[in-house]
Design goal:
heterodimer, A: about 280 residues, mainly alpha, 2 domains, two-stranded antiparallel ribbon, about 70% helix, B: Rossmann fold, four-stranded antiparallel beta sheet, 10 strands, globular
């Protein structure tokens, strides 16, 4: 059923990460991405992966759902890794394997792949633990300083939330139109991709027209409820920071500091481990 | 002061040849606290009336006033819309937010109500419409009747004195229709809200204090349900039917049962039939 498709991939739960303020989550995701790109060696990357695992554990999201997000970019990861191996420019003292492949090339390709994967996994944690509605609230609140330069933040947020709320309605409508066209003998399942795409035209046109009609009625409904832009508007939902957000912030700061330290003291750390293990 | 006054209102769509006159020299007064049903077939102009009340449409000539405020004056519109809430036909085309609570908050937010009071208004609107249990649900997952009750809650959150139902029950199943009408009745009887119900369900109209029948942009009959439904020929001429119970009573009478005139509701019919049974 199309109508059961919910937007995004939200995994309902009341975990620590779920209850974080959406603004904090967005900012921490940005911090995490910067952290991944700050890490210059495998140790740093492993540290940020540890941070990610900690987040996954505290989000209560099954690891399978997080790993699913990698599937979509698997091709991209493999493709960039291969390019990296083929176009590696060898330096003095690199170990040549065969043709244009060097050990160092393989290592740098692996490093890049790991970086990409941890990037996508981190972002999927945000969408898995935040509803689209609170994500919109978070974005609106984070963008609110732009009001100073007359950027229509409120209108943008309203457009986003109406778009979100229209998804189930339009999904239902699409299903109805497809059924109606099928009842008239339309064929959506056979033929090549071009033929299939052409078969969708008689679905899209009524859908578009009905979306306009709905939009028109929605405009009336908004007028009837005194909508007049953002002039006098107040906001019912207020995002509030809590101790939880502070803890999440501090943990991220510690992880970030760790990654920077590992960048600087990589050799010392390696030597230390070498000493422990003899 | 009257709640709503239409004075010699005409309204037409389009220009030139495609011009279509929907209302012709239409006059109607609606008293504060009354429950008025507007009946008429499709295209009789009843929905246009609704949109004229809160200024979504402006009359071509004549005036519409709400509590003495002219809808032609743009500076009045905000106040008029605050005092005359409206619920539309399609439950899917009138909600703004995904979550029930946020959707009900939309109206109060628009008029700049402080946050604490918005919460009180949501509590009130949800409890009057019996939708508290859906407060944090997604509107998309509710049934038609539940969606329309949420839509009423959204209108009431502005604390209006008039509630306009523009065929609000026409897309609902009988159960949903009953749910919505129960809420509307409570609002009218207990909160003294003026209700204008635009409908083509006769059984719904029977509950009103006053019925107006419209045809071709003019009022053809007006009065209490008993007065209006007594004009059987006129009702048929306007493309309408009698309420089901009235039709059954007619049939029983023509079959020889000594039933009195003016039976319109299920309850009245069963009472009279029981009376007859007792006499036998």
């Amino acid at each position: 059923m199309l109508s059961e498709v919910t937007f995004g991939q939200y995994y309902p739960s009341k975990s620590f990460v779920h209850r974080l303020d959406p603004r904090v989550k967005i900012l921490l995701l940005i911090a995490y991405i910067v952290m991944i790109f700050t890490a210059q060696n495998f140790l740093g990357l492993i540290a940020s992966l540890l941070f990610l695992s900690l987040t996954i554990i505290f989000s209560g999201v099954p690891i399978g759902s997080v790993l699913k997000s990698i599937k979509a970019i698997l091709f991209l990861v493999i493709f960039t890794a291969i390019l990296n191996i083929l176009f590696y420019s060898p330096k003095q003292g690199d170990t040549h394997l065969f043709w244009v492949v060097y050990v160092e090339g393989l290592i740098s390709a692996g490093f890049l792949a790991l970086r990409l994967i941890s990037l996508v996994m981190g972002s999927s944690i945000l969408t898995l633990t935040t509803t689209p509605v609170s994500l919109t609230d978070g974005i609106e609140s984070l963008l609110s300083p732009l009001k100073l330069v007359k950027f229509p933040v409120h209108d943008l947020a309203l457009i986003m939330s109406i778009a979100l709320r229209s998804i189930p309605t339009l999904a239902n409508e699409t299903e109805r139109i497809i059924n109606a066209q099928k009842a008239r003998g339309a064929d959506f399942d056979s033929g090549n991709i071009i033929k299939k795409a052409k078969a969708l035209v008689p679905v899209l046109i009524p859908l578009l027209i009905s979306a306009f009609r709905r939009g028109d009625e929605l405009g009336d409904a908004m007028d009837a409820r005194c909508y007049s832009g953002s002039k006098v508007r107040t906001k019912y939902k207020k995002l509030t920071l809590s101790v939880r957000d502070l803890i999440a912030f501090l943990v991220t700061v510690v992880a970030f500091a760790g990654v920077i330290l590992l960048n600087i003291y990589e050799l010392n750390v390696l030597a230390y481990f070498a000493k422990i293990w003899g | 002061m009257q709640a709503i006054e239409f004075k010699n209102v005409s309204f037409s769509y389009g220009d030139g040849d495609s011009r279509k006159e929907v209302l012709k020299d239409f006059s109607l007064t609606i008293k504060k606290g009354s429950f008025v049903a507007l009946l008429g077939r499709n295209g009789s102009g009843k929905s246009t009336c609704a949109k004229l009340i809160n200024g979504l449409l402006i009359p071509t000539s004549g005036t519409v006033t709400v509590f003495g405020m002219d809808t032609k004056d743009k500076s009045n519109l905000f106040e008029i819309r605050k005092r005359a809430g409206m619920v539309f036909q399609n439950p899917d085309n009138q909600q703004i937010a995904s979550i029930v609570e946020d959707d009900v908050a939309f109206g109060p937010e628009n008029i700049g109500v402080p946050r604490k009071e918005i919460k009180e208004r949501i509590d009130y609107a949800l409890s009057v419409t019996g939708t508290e249990e859906f407060r944090h649900s997604e509107v998309a997952r509710l049934s038609g009747g539940q969606k329309q009750r949420v839509a009423i809650a959204g209108a009431i959150a502005l604390l209006p004195e008039i509630l306009i139902l523009d065929e609000s029950t026409s897309m609902l199943d009988p159960k949903g229709r009953k749910e919505v009408m129960e809420v509307v009745r409570t609002l009218n009887r207990e909160k003294g809200m003026t209700v204008i119900d635009i409908t083509h369900y006769m059984d719904e109209a029977v509950e009103a204090d006053e019925i107006c029948i419209m045809d071709n942009g003019v009022i053809t009959a007006q009065g209490t349900p008993n007065q209006v439904f007594a004009q059987k020929e006129l009702i048929a001429k306007c493309g309408l039917e009698l309420p089901v119970s009235a039709k059954i009573a007619e049939k029983l009478k023509s079959a020889g049962l000594p039933l009195p005139e003016g039976i319109l509701t299920k309850e009245a019919l069963s009472d009279k039939l029981c009376e007859l049974l007792r006499k036998i």
